[in-house]
């Protein structure tokens, strides 16, 4: 079964990836706008992508980890100095972004809403 993690903010994200241990499975990270009081992300694309990505988790290896990262509120994300944009490990241009950590596979924006593309990312070796 996929191990799921939910992280809020850049510090939690960096601490998580800095402490990643070698494991047999892949690590997939979905970067999304932070949730507001109603429990939904302020980012409408992220809201549409999340159920598609979560449904496709069934195609991942059972040793995989899935990490949902809230990048912050709209103003924090839109700042060109946002650390998620400037960190050499992430270099995010848009949210949502789904990556296979440590590999070139990446889906951005509306691609994360496409079940076929998400399934392919989860099945690629």
UniProtKB/TrEMBL annotation:
<dbReference type="Pfam" id="PF06110">
    <property type="entry name" value="TXD17-like_Trx"/>
</dbReference>
<comment type="similarity">
    <text>Belongs to the thioredoxin family.</text>
</comment>
<feature type="domain" description="Thioredoxin">
    <location>
        <begin position="7"/>
        <end position="124"/>
    </location>
</feature>
<dbReference type="InterPro" id="IPR036249">
    <property type="entry name" value="Thioredoxin-like_sf"/>
</dbReference>
<keyword id="KW-1015">Disulfide bond</keyword>
<protein>
    <recommendedName>
        <fullName>Thioredoxin domain-containing protein 17</fullName>
    </recommendedName>
</protein>
<dbReference type="GO" id="GO:0047134">
    <property type="term" value="F:protein-disulfide reductase [NAD(P)H] activity"/>
</dbReference>
<dbReference type="InterPro" id="IPR045108">
    <property type="entry name" value="TXNDC17-like"/>
</dbReference>
<dbReference type="GO" id="GO:0005829">
    <property type="term" value="C:cytosol"/>
</dbReference>
<keyword id="KW-0963">Cytoplasm</keyword>
<keyword id="KW-0676">Redox-active center</keyword>
<dbReference type="InterPro" id="IPR010357">
    <property type="entry name" value="TXNDC17_dom"/>
</dbReference>
């Amino acid at each position: 079964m996929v191990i799921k993690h939910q992280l809020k903010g850049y510090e939690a994200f960096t601490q998580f990836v800095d402490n990643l241990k070698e494991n047999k499975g892949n690590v997939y990270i979905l970067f999304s706008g932070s949730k507001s009081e109603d429990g939904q992300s302020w980012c409408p694309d992220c809201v549409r992508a999340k159920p598609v990505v979560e449904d496709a988790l069934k195609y991942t290896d059972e040793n995989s980890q899935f990490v949902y990262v809230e990048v912050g509120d709209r103003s924090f994300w839109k700042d060109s100095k946002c650390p998620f944009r400037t960190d050499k490990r992430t270099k995010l241009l848009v949210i949502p972004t789904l990556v296979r950590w440590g590999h070139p596979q990446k889906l951005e924006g509306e691609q994360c809403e496409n079940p076929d593309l998400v399934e392919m990312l989860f099945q690629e070796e």
